[in-house]
Structure formats: structure tokens, C-alpha cells
């Protein structure tokens, strides 16, 4: 599939650089805020490296943006009407093979993404990646082992989990078959 990764490397690079520069942060300041090394951030901003899902989670947390916002086109036209499956851009995590396809456009009030988690994959996120968002995970196919802080939930097709307060979380596929799930999130402000 030609629309996986390549168009996104430049988009991600540009978005991360513009978010950092818009905040007037140095590479070192973003590294401190995210826990990602300045060298890795520099390689990502130059389009020399595609970030992993873990790195995107850390950067999104530092910027207080969703991963979908980091993957979105900043200069795209508002989307309405029919969006064909073969026109959708998918992002693939170079470390795990995790695939993410954004279902809704950047102007829709909820962000909805379809995720394909390969067998044996584990994608952890820091608690800060869940600040200022409300999120529901809905398993469509397969089995998802979801670590919510110290609590572990095994979710099957049709199961959902609505996430509460921010905690370290991990999406794990401990089976031999792909797991497909949907993430639905909205932004909210802290009290």
C-alpha cells in the first residue's frame, strides 16, 4: 500500500517542528518535556526517522495534543461527506507494525481512529498522553490486553473501556492474531 508511512514522515516532521517552534522551545526543552532525546527529535524533524508510537505518545503529551493532531495535515481543507477507504492515509509504527488510520477529519469534534495491533505487539504510553482528553477504546476483532495503570483488562470483540484519570497505559496483543480496535477521544480541560 503506497499511502503508508511515506507521506506521513514529512508531515510528522513539519508538525513537530512547527509545534516546537510555535512554543519557542529549543530541542533541549522539548526533550526535557517529553523524555525523547534531542538527537531523536532532530532526526524526526528533519524527516530522517519515523517516530515510533511510543515516541509520538511522549511528544503528544509534551505538546498536550493527541497523536491524531500530530499526524494531521495542518493546512488541509475541512473534510465533510464521503471519505473512501482507499484514500485514507495509514501510519505504521516502525517498531511494532501497529497501524493507525484516522477516521474523522481534524475539524470533527471527536477524534476516531482505527488501530491494527499485530500479534505480540506492546505499545505503552505515559500518563501525560492522556491529560486533557477523554477516551473510549472499542475492540472490533481479536483480543486486546489493556494495562490501565496497575489494572489489566482483557477485552474481546464488542468490549469497550472508557478511560478515567490519566495513568500509564499499554495496549498489548498477547495473542497470535491481529487485534483491531477503535479509539474515540474528545478533548476536555482540567478543572
TrEMBL record:
Pfam families (alphabetical): HTH_3 (PF01381)
Domain of life, per lineage: Bacteria
Secretion signal span: none
Keywords assigned: DNA-binding
The keyword DNA damage appears for this protein: no
Span of domain HTH cro/C1-type: 16-70
Keyword presence, Ribonucleoprotein: no
TM spans (from-to): none
Protein name (Swiss-Prot/TrEMBL): Helix-turn-helix transcriptional regulator
Protein source organism: Actinoplanes flavus
